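Methods: example folding runs. The two proteins below were folded one after another, and each record is reproduced exactly as written to the output file, sequence line first and structure-token line second.
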Amino acid sequence: MLKYYVADAFADDVFEGNPAGVCVLDEWLPLEKMAKIAMENNLSETGFAVKEKENPCTYGLRWFTPTGEIDLCGHCTFGTAYILFRFFEQNTPEIHFDTKKCGYHLIVEKHGDMLTMDFPSIMPEPYTYEEYMGDGVGAVPSEVYRTERDLVLIYDSAETVRNLKPDFSKIKEFPYGLSVYVTAKSDDTNYDFVARAFWPKINVNEDPVCGSMHCALTPFWKARLGKDKMAARSLSARGGTVYCEDCGERVKLSGRGALYLVGNILCDEAEVDR
């Protein structure tokens, strides 16, 4: 039996933000078992964390989508930290994560009801526009960028981003980009920029709030807006807010979380009884 949690990341209340499944383990399950649990949970990501006995407040961390393990996930790191702070590490202000797929060292700090993640900065580079991009996303972007993993499409208005009706079957056939990020300057004075994230290649058509996306959007919008600190709003149906700070080679991503579920997963590989 595994203790199982769901936390809404970058949410001021339940049913907002991005739900993340979280399993805190005494030891790693086989990769196939973790993949099956994530598939059964059917959330965009499920995180698995194991405390490293030699390093206080440091956990190994892996993320799985319904189709397999992924190399970086912001909202599920946030959700995992939220659960650890609430149930396992109430007396520490900081949790470290050693990610097992790509070797990132991630830090999450607690400041009152806010959590702040320290993530790598990923500056996107210009990329050539192709007609299939506008056909798949639903509108022709003004500019196109890419990271090593994803596409970033820039639009001239937040309203365009808000009203996009993507053809996910077409996005799934894009030859480049595990995901497609769409973004524009905000038309709401409470926020600096808006964004949406589409991941049909991993069977997540739209991620409600994508944390890792802001590793690229933070340095991009800093260069455009001239601001180190910015507020970003997800224009997905659920919505959510990420407070971004550009720190050079790192970015800090902050927000609030909400607890949705505490339960048990019946599993024959391990037992965690907290």
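Second run, written to the same file directly after the first:
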Amino acid sequence: MPQAKDTHPSHILVVDDDPDMLRLLSIRLQGAGYRISTATSAEAALALLDAERPQLVLSDVRLPGKDGLALFDELRQRHPSLPVILLTAHGTIPDAVEATARGVFGYLTKPFDARELLDKIGQALALSAPPLPAAQADESWRSEIVSRSARMAEVLAEARMVAQSDASVLLRGDSGAGKELLARAIHKASPRAKKPFVAVNCGAIPENLLESELFGHVKGAFTDAVSNHKGLFQAADGGTLLLDEIGDMPPALQVKLLRVLQERAVRPLGSSQSIPVDVRIISATHRDLDAAMAAGQFREDLYYRLNVVTLTLPTLGERREDIGLLANHFLQKLASKYGKRLSGFAPEALKALNASPWPGNVRQLYNVVEQVSALSTTPLVPLTLVQRALRAPQVEVLTYAEAKQRFERDYLVGLLKITDGNVADAARLADRNRTEFYRLLQKHELTPGNFKAEALK
């Protein structure tokens, strides 16, 4: 059916090498309220998709160079959630039917009825991007995520789709890429938006406290338990719980988390009663969980419970078109924070930002912009300040969990060096039993024998 005209019309890419057909389709679809881009070849269509992601592709099967079927195959690899409708002459119907079996949303034979075309497009758009509640239709659900990258547009389109369900989501991506922001966006786009969003970093809380933090405890459960404490699962009841850095969760707690997910109930420490909870789980990690499973550090059954849908965030280096956009966005926010009149970056300064590798991703970019905002004495941020910020050690880019991990490893290495690789002596200095100390060494892949005097010669 025709789309109701609004301020955010769905974007359709039409691909056909016949100028008359391209013009006719454009007129009909624009008249129905859609925003249209056109391409006369598969190659031109793919180039357009590098710049902007439409909500649907409508393509003729017969095209010069790559045909419509080859275009579909490439789109399925690059943008698996992007629906494709094929237009076909009678001679290519068998190909179109085969393509439908492979994942094409549908096909129409020429000459086609205009009403049938609009109905098919409406069905495809309804399935690929379920409508949000009216209050969220203005895209406010993703307002914290600033981007014009086609890669991010793909991730956001999939995030919006999965938000409508209760499926568990695993967010993958390097540190600083914006996993928590994406988790918040999914929550805002979901039917749970008015309920709590609670985030916990599983690597930042000591193992002996994490269980109580997640599941709660009753008074007297342990020495410092002077009153009942609701855990984060109960705090997030009806809403969404983000388990950040899930790959750092200790094995013993992985078992208990799996039981909670299976039974949809938590049992606080020291209690004999289970409490039902209704929580949507989003997990996030920068670790390779497949490698962690192979090493016996992460439970396979828990992995498949958490990894119903996977979304992978690109690094900042993979979305370079966003660097200038984000830098200016952060600059305006920070100008208000520091009470300064900052209008932007000098061209050379912006060029330096765009050329930087950004190993710390968006978090590092924010830190660099904050430094230049604090130090700038002119409305236009100069190159010299940007160069200074980029050369400065980026210690602040580390999260608390990452800094803790680094300190722990350096501490263990120091003990092994002091004790000539003697685990019993090192464990005694650390005030830990040997079993626990060996577990720490295994966690950091440290071999005591490598620290013996003869091994260091």
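Comment on the second run: Confidence is low (pLDDT under 50) at residues 1-7, 130-137.
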